[in-house]
Amino acid sequence: MKSPAFSYYQAKDLADAINVKKTDDDAVILAGGQSLLPTLNMRLSNPSVLIDIGNISELKEIKVDDSNLIMGAMCSHSQIMNNKEVNEKLPILNKILSQVAHPAVRNKGTHGGSIAYGDPAAELPAFAVLVNAEIILSGSDGERIVSAKEFYKGLFETAINSDEILTSVKYPINRNGMKLFFDEVTRRHGDYAMAGLVGSIKQNNKINEEINLVFFGTGDRPNEAPKTCEYLLKNEYNYSDIKNTLKNDIDFASDISSSSDMKAHLSAILVGRMMKELN
Amino acid sequence: MDDLNQNPKLGAADRPNSYIGRSVPRERAKKLLEGKGKYVDDILLPRMAHLSYVRSPFAHAKIKSINIENAKKYPGVLNVFTIDDIEKVCTPWQGVLGHLGEMRSPTQYPLAKDIVRWQGEPVAVVVANKRAVAEDASELVEIDYEDLDAQLDMETAMDKSTKVIHDDLENNLFWTRTVNQGNVSEAFKQSHIVEEVTLDFARHTGVTLETRAIVADWDSSEEKMTVYHNGQAPHMMQSIIAKHLNLSEGLVRIISCDVGGSFGIKVHVYPDEMVTVAVSKLLKRPVKFVADRLESYSTDIHSRCHKILGKIGVDDKGKILAFEIDDLSGIGPFSVYPRTSAIETNQVLNLSAASYVVPNYKAKGTVVFQNKTPMCQYRAVGHPIAVAITEALVDKAANALDMDRYEFRKINLIPDNSYPTKTPSGVPLEDLSHEACIEKLKKMMNISELEKYKKESLANGKYKGFSIINMVEVTNPSPAFYGVGGAPISSQDGASIRLEGSGAVHISTSITEQGQGTEAVMQQIAADQLGVKIDTVRVTHGDTDATPYGGGTWASRGAGIGGEAVLKASRKLKENILNIAAVIMQSEVNNLDVQNDQVIRKDGGEVISLKDLAQIVYYRGHELPPGTNAELIATASFSIEGIPFVFTNSAMGCLVDVDVDTGLTKIEKFWAVEDCGTQINPKLVEEQIRGGVVQGIGGALYEECIYDEMGNLTNGNMADYLVPMAYEMPDIIVDHVTTNSGRSILGAKGAGEAGTGGAPGAIMNAINDALIPLNTQVTSQPITPEKVLKALGKI
Ligand SMILES: Cc1cc2nc3c(=O)[nH]c(=O)nc-3n(C[C@H](O)[C@H](O)[C@H](O)COP(=O)(O)OP(=O)(O)OC[C@H]3O[C@@H](n4cnc5c(N)ncnc54)[C@H](O)[C@@H]3O)c2cc1C
User: Fold this and answer.
1) Which end of chain B is more exposed for a tag (fewer CB within 10 A), N or C?
2) Can you give the CATH number for the domain in which A26 is found?
């Protein structure tokens, strides 16, 4: 369990990091290392160089304005949890992050790393998809923005090009009347979920006008469930119907934590909890 | 309850330096917490090389060829060895013992020879200047395998159509035993109610914080082999290494540094560790092997893979008439050397129903081979299975009769005034206290409140359940455990104690320390019995060149056996000190005592410090009359005689919440009442119980070695193999009943395994109690949310 030999490069600034990345196809960005380093030690990958972006101060900033919250890629999970403005403007993030691993991992693990890595069982990618966050990428051709709904392509596959670095994620806030929900089912606190749900409901006069659901731990990427959302706009929650509709929305994939049947069941339970909590 | 010495044989509790029975803080804890512990991986020796093993990726395959040439050429590699090289310096072994009937386990080689039989079996070893380089080169060893059918499922092991793993055996049977007391079939006929259940237990493993590690250093000039090894039984390893490497046993030195947990995982002979010693001999230089976490999962022994059918017959008053079990266990391809892989099943047969009066008892155990990691003894060997099947049946019988579960137990438990007696299987029992323990437990748990809580919760759609269980724990084994069967495992332990010129007292003990506080306990016994301050006593352990001979630490034997040796040696030394002091102080011996590092006169007056006394003896011996017996060193040893084991007993209970939507179980509270005889350090006893319970929670709810249909271990890492963590731990409330063992002066039994043995049964019963209103039950451990939901018919 010793990683294969690699070299280490500490990037001076963003341009420097992009430059190195561009010239070496086998170079890999090192953020908090919480996902990358275990895969190296297990010899699942063999990079030539790790480009450490930990010293680029602009990537560690959290910016808040009236309608957006912009999270620098290198903000650690803990930094975000301890940020007063984030806790005021988007309190659900704190709730979500408290379920991401444990304090030691959260002190190192970064927002950008989690979004860029795109673990299908991770919480943050699903949340980014729910609110259709803007994912800001910088490459040799400059900056571009990809919406979260377009960002996740498949299992650990994202829209990031090989010469690009994810620099920040922009979340909309204060979306009038949108209520947010987060819950997940894990066997142990801090584990990746057997199934998890982030959802939102917009109501007018206590009537649901818009419902969004994004599941994690259920498939190869954050899973949206449009048919189920539609069903819920027209019908009361009903466990078996929801489970069936969810199966039409999502190709539930079993993993070591649970079978696909289990994931479908838990997803339906989570929807029930959401409808109860937000209605 | 804390801080009480209840053993009159040890003297009054209020005398000075009475440390036995008190929660004296452990000196060593500070060192470990500061990160100053010294583990095998901290050993750095000049010219030391590092090993990496090439392991079988297949559960069962023929080795057609091995090409090591490319690996050998890799920069930094010193050599690459296969069985052809290792065989020249290390002989193979066989995991069989002579005292438990026929065991049929074939010869096991230190590296796979011709055939690999589990995924993870070592096939070749790369020696390099660094571990990372050795791992690089391991990828260059080319092995051509021909896949063979893998025999994975223990239930099909004995089928005619199943592949036989060892050609020279006619089937996959390793060992079988039947116990038959009375006449069960007749008794079942006469029973008012007969209940049956089949339980299954998944394989799991010990997951020590520090993985297995060994440094071997062959000095060809002295023909001396020094081995740094994080094991539990240094003298056993000394004997085994000498035997298989054909070395003079006296020239093999085993040093155990700090050990980061062992749980029985580190008391066995592992092929990769034997090969490490062999490589040192071949290369005439020190070599290090540290198992990484991935290797630990696929090569540390597993345990608990059982399927057990149980049946209980009771009369209309609730008296148990008959008890029968049929247990099947799969142990991997070899019985593990030298303790064998029969013991777990043997314990299941010995210990099922062991807390109860059962006139008719029948038990059958069958142990078969599989192409999976070898299984062997892990903390609470066999107990979790025996306790779970017994207590599941007892609850079923009580419920079937509509009797209170506590009342049912009370009329069936072996009464406290009936010892000595025997278990239903015929094993001698003495000095137990089931009735006192369950009484105390009942009060602690406040059962009527729990019933109320259960009812109220149910009204709110919440499913809560609780349990009460009883158990015995095997501790302090006599030679009847292993020695009688031919294993080089000492049942005796020794202690040597000396007063030094500085007035310091130094003990050396053959018991080893793995983090549980052995040192502290020995220090307390010596200080208490000698009459010195705790800080005066130093302890050496874990070095075959420096300690008396003995068995080491396993089977909850350290305090009871090793502690008694320290007690006896301390008393001898005290006698010597008093005799010398009598001469110096010109007093009657009877008028003297040792207190607070001084010899005092009981009637007051002049004292002499132990330091002054020691300096007279060592430096100015001429001041003593010629012929004075001035030995300031004493040695003693102890082993259990006249009974195979010193049993302990406990009663446990737990309260759970079962979420019927998600299938998740939350343990809300856990209670344990333990009788381990004299508690030398109550805090250490309680932490043993708590730690044990947590390991039991692991087995009951989380831990499982999951294999795919090809025989690959699919979750051999800390992310996918779930161990319980702080967040999942309930409050564990511990109390005690004290019945001293009559086998020693100290009166201590063991306390290391009860929690692990009892918790799985307690948890399963509590869950099933919660599920009663839903008319279903769970019978398979770990009790995953998925299994709960399946039992509920939800998925
Ligand atoms: C024990 C444990 C438990 C965990 N539990 C959870 C959990 O419950 N939920 C959860 O969501 N996560 C969990 N994690 C993962 C944790 O949140 C990680 O921190 C996160 O997924 C990756 O962030 P990182 O900064 O560590 O990235 P790294 O490990 O450094 O990088 C991960 C990958 O992303 C790439 N990358 C990183 N940053 C960028 C960037 N700015 N631009 C382009 N590519 C980039 C890297 O090249 C690498 O391929 C857990 C981790 C551990 C060790």
Assistant:
1) N
2) 3.30.43.10
